[in-house]
DNA sequence: CCTACCGATCGGTAGG
DNA sequence: CCTACCGATCGGTAGG
């Protein structure tokens, strides 16, 4: 998909190549030598762009998390019914995973690699974004219940149900090697089942 | 939690310690020296138990996957209504994640680290187990639809909906550092919403 | 952006 | 289960 085109400046290609490798092999499994090799330069030249491997990873992770937020969140606050907004939010989130699989995988890698040397900074970054997202969801579901579109369950239950559903869909998409398209075709079926679970009225 | 008790034979403690480290730090992020250090022996002594790091990882992964299957599957084929069986299956699966977090995390690490040197063997192992699980689920949902407990949707949709739900719950459990208990308390709420989505009758 | 190089650590072996 | 050791590779630096 990404062609590593030589027309792109090295600094930009570095981000692409590095996030591909980090996403595929994790932080520890990715060496600077391999990144340099794919870029067609020598390893020490990387230090013209980044001061350390940690910094490179954290920069890419920060950009990935922010890109996910910016791509997926607007739909939640947009026009239309709560049903429409949450549905668009789902498609935005999955669309981001489709268009930016490496950015999505970076987030996944970060979550699963707490315990390494850079865990504190990673945890701090992820925690703040998760808290922010949770607050948005809480506000959304409070509204949705008030509008009588969603059953008057505990807000924390509704938030958790959504997070579980979205995590499940994204997990299956990222790790469904070779048949991602099958999931995408059935995405709206999954959505209807989810919505049926929380909807005030059965359609 | 695990006390690395010195009463346990080294061979058994090796499995515990190694799967803890692999689960926390991934394959590449775990060194044999660290494993040996935690065991209180020297690195070369590990080779009395395993021929290579690959072999150690694959052995632990195989054991983890099989333990998950053996712990979670019986509930699916047990007595009771399909509703009861699937509900017990959910609790078996989560119970396994609670009791054997490192085994569960080993599976997760394996899935997310395709692309490394041992990817072919990992993929082969996971693929066969996933196919087996999928067939069990298909049979289960065919029965459940026939018994009119579940709506007559496409079987593949029902299977995918369940896989998505279970993946979501397990993902959130594994990565909900510090508030796993919150998820466990709300597990049955999530279950009810899921079942409501696919149930033939709304209770 | 390069060559040359650093100490540390990697998985693994020899030999006991 | 140990000491002693291997070549390869790690992230990173010096100096240009």
Give an account of the 3D structure.
- By secondary structure, chain A is mainly alpha-helical.
- Helix content of chain A is 71%, strand content 0%.
- Chain A contains 9 helices and no strands.
- Chain A has helices at residues 10-25, 32-39, 53-72, 74-77, 82-99, 101-112, 119-146, 155-174, 180-198.
- The longest helix of chain A is centred in the middle third of the chain and has 28 residues, at 119-146.
- Chain A starts with 9 loop residues before the first helix and ends in a 5-residue tail after the last helix.
- Residues 1-5 of chain A have low confidence and may be disordered.
- Chain A binds chain B through residues 24-29, 108-109, 111-116, 123, 153-154, 156-157, 160-161, 163-169, 171-172, 175, 177, 182-183, 186, 189-190, 192-198, 202, and chain B through 24-29, 108-109, 111-116, 123, 153-154, 156-157, 160-161, 163-169, 171-172, 175, 177, 182-183, 186, 189-190, 192-198, 202.
- Chain A binds a DNA duplex (16 and 16 nucleotides) through residues 10, 31-33, 41-45, 47-48, 52-53.
Question: What percentage of amino acids of chain A are in beta strands?
Answer: under 5%
Helix percent of chain A reads over 70%
The total count of helices of chain A amounts to: 9
Biggest sheet details of chain A: none
Record field, number of beta strands of chain A: 0
Give the mean pLDDT of chain A.
93
- Calculate Rg of chain A over CA atoms: 19 Å
Q: Uncertain spans of chain A, ≥5 residues at pLDDT below 50? A: 1-5
**Oligomeric state of the chains in view:** homodimer
Order of helices and strands of chain A: HHHHHHHHH
In one word, what is the shape of chain A?
Answer: elongated
Amino-to-carboxy terminus distance of chain A:
40 Å
Structural class of chain A: mainly alpha
Most extensive interface: pair and counts? A-B, 45 and 45 residues
